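Supplementary Note 2. Why include the ligand at all?

Several targets in our set were suspected to adopt different conformations when bound, so apo predictions alone were not considered sufficient. For every target with a known small-molecule partner we therefore ran a joint prediction. The input for zinc ion is given below.
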Amino acid sequence: MKSPLLPLLAILSLIGLTQCHPVRVAQGPAHPQTSIQERPTNIILMIGDGMGISQITAGLYSNDNRLQLERFKHIGLHKSHAFNKLVTDSAAGATAFSCGKKTYNYAVGVDADTIPCKTIMEEAKERGLATGMVVSSTIVHATPAAFIAHNEYRKNYEAIAAEFPGSGIDFFVGGGLKFFQNRESDSRDLCAEMRSSGYVIQDHFHDNIDQIVPAPNKPFGFLTANEDPLPFERGRSYLLPATLAGIDHLQHRSEHGFFLMVEGSQIDWGGHANESAYIISEMLEFDKIIGKVLDFAENNPGTLVIVTADHETGGYSILESSSMNALQTAFTTIGHTADLIPVFAYGPGAETFQGIYENTALYDKIMNLMGWSK
Ligand code: MG
Ligand code: ZN
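The joint prediction is reproduced in token form.
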């Protein structure tokens, strides 16, 4: 049946009125249509550990007043507090994102009653998406651990590592080889176990990641250091190439899309050390990766990119004596602070990340956008 609106639309377009609001409304209810179109295929969650507003500002004003982060148009703030403390640690902060639950500091992938909670990465895996993590700490450190493991204490690194073989993770890069083999708590060799189940595991440092990533029919792990990887300013170089290699690998591993978590882990460590130069070099490395990830998202329109932090570290501030590219800074703590934390989003559903909300709402928003029920 022909729509009775069509002759009206034809007349309106003749007199140049089709640009105006009433005609667009006449096309039908916008809401149901948008939610179908806005379902992302790929999710890239980028966490700058300890990356508060002042860390971002310091990066900006140490980089000729430019950041890749400025490309985002949809920006919000999250309330980072933990279940039992106003100031969160990275474990509770990451569990809020991964499980949508406020938990106590030191908890990874368990709720406030120490009950394991299903993580967003496990949800993704269950639904056939490829999953991956690329970090500049050990791969068992609090932030990545909260996405893959369930432990009441973040420093049970060997127990956290033991959750990798059964996780189905498709791609991971980070330090911490010593928690996978020559372990203190048992004689398991997790690298050998994963190899026997089909993984390619790289267990010593290699400069050119493109040469060691296998074809997408094999899952891949790269343990870049025995313990913590080096800071960027002291020679760590893998975070950007590993992120790009991860996107490429995951993209070809599943037709259902992928979930990738990328962490700029050491922005936090610069804050704990109260070293402004350390914060800035880690921040600018992370920002460069953000730019490359946005380039990918622009060319792959189903990709939702979310950039945020778990908390601010150092009570870092930029003093009045500063000038462009010459900052004078100060710190109020060697720990974390309770600051509100920015969230930047690009891609399908990005506008839903505007506003002020709990850190746990990141999980809720992703679950809603993907149409995944709890
Ligand atoms: Mg971290
Ligand atoms: Zn920290």
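Residues 1-36 have pLDDT under 50 and may be disordered. The CA atoms of residues 128 and 239 lie 26 Å apart. Comparable summaries for the other entries are listed in the accompanying table.
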